[in-house]
Write a structure and sequence with these properties.
- The protein contains twelve helices and 13 strands.
- With about 325 residues, the protein is α/β, with parallel strands linked by helices.
- Helix 2 packs across helix 4 and helix 3 crosses helix 4.
Length: about 325
């Protein structure tokens, strides 16, 4: 079976920024060739080709696949080491402070933590939803992911993390419990009271992005209620953060959205609570030292005071490690 490999080093990416080397590599992905054959295809001398091929070989992108001796002449056939490459590299600011990339479900508390720790560490956020945050962590595109994924058995995050990281050690720590519900305009002029109201023709809705924990919860809930998505006006429209959901309601773009209570509170909107969820931080064990300041902050009284000042957060279990053994119990 042909394989795809991922480029992780800046040196490899820099090497392929040269169009000549990239062109040679693409030819060698398709089939093996000698320097003479490559030169004939490219209209260049074998010596010119050899210069670029040797650079690709030293970077581990090309290898000698076969050596043939014909009429006393030795010919080396080169081939790319993979059939395709995925270009992937984090380009981070050059700073005296450590840089932490956070990806996953949007959370107001993470923004507050980033602001609080800015003198000691830079926390850059990429809100893509819980599932894609775990994918990014798996692919090395972030140092820590945030998730609130509920599995059919009623367990948060642990089954998903076990499934996606069966071959590497990861840690999981609870950030907080959060209240989610329906965000509505101040005074609730449309009289929204439950998810059933989403099917009303006078109610417009704005959804969260596919793969977000909020949207996955909604999909399961309306399926349980046998409420077709096609009956919800605006179901296909979506935004990527809880703050954007609240702003859409505030600006009249939608009558209601699902989000965390803190997002509604920040812009003085009304809120109908639906459920409480556990929001966890997931990280590879090799990054534990880098994100140490973030994890340490979860244990402080100042963190709990600040989070408790945000409506809809519960810090009773903040900072607790979640075991990823089959028992999955809290420490």
């Amino acid at each position: 079976m042909e394989k795809i490999e991922t480029l992780h080093t800046f040196e490899q990416l820099k090497l392929l920024a040269d169009s000549n080397r990239l062109g040679i590599l693409r030819l060698l992905m398709a089939e093996q060739a000698t320097l003479t054959q490559l030169g004939a295809i490219l209209g260049e001398s074998p010596a010119w080709v050899r210069h670029h091929v040797k650079m690709l070989e030293s970077a581990g992108l090309v290898e000698i696949k076969e050596i043939r001796v014909t009429a006393g002449i030795t010919e080396k056939y080169y081939k790319a080491r993979s059939s395709a490459l995925l270009l992937q590299e984090l380009i981070l600011p050059q700073s005296s402070k450590p840089v932490i990339i956070f990806s996953g479900s949007h959370d107001t508390a993470i923004e507050r933590i980033a602001s609080h720790l800015t003198r000691h560490v830079s926390i850059l956020t990429l809100p893509v939803g819980s599932l894609d945050g775990l994918v990014n962590l798996r692919q090395g595109l972030c140092h820590v992911a945030g998730a609130h994924l509920l599995d059919p058995g009623g367990e948060y995050n642990t089954p998903f993390v076990r499934h996606m990281f069966p071959d590497r050690p990861v840690g999981m720590v609870t950030l907080a419990y959060r209240t989610q519900g329906l965000i509505v305009a101040a005074g609730n002029p449309k009289g929204v009271s439950s998810l059933l109201d989403l099917s009303r023709q006078d109610i417009s809705f704005i959804n969260r992005n596919p793969g977000s924990g909020t949207r996955l919860w909604l999909e399961k809930e309306i399926a349980r209620m046998r409420l077709p998505a096609s009956e919800i006006r605006g179901y296909k429209r979506f935004v990527s953060t809880h703050s954007d959901s609240a702003r859409a309601v505030q600006l009249g773009v939608a009558d209601t959205a699902i989000g965390i209570q803190a997002a509604a509170w920040e812009v003085q909107l009304d809120f109908i609570p639906l459920f409480e969820e556990r929001y966890d931080l997931i990280f590879s064990e090799e990054q534990a030292r880098l994100i140490g300041p973030l994890l340490d902050h979860l244990q402080t009284a100042s963190f709990r005071r600040e989070l408790n000042s945000l409506t809809g957060y519960n810090t009773a279990h903040s900072g607790e490690q979640i075991l990823l053994s089959e028992q999955g119990a809290n420490l």
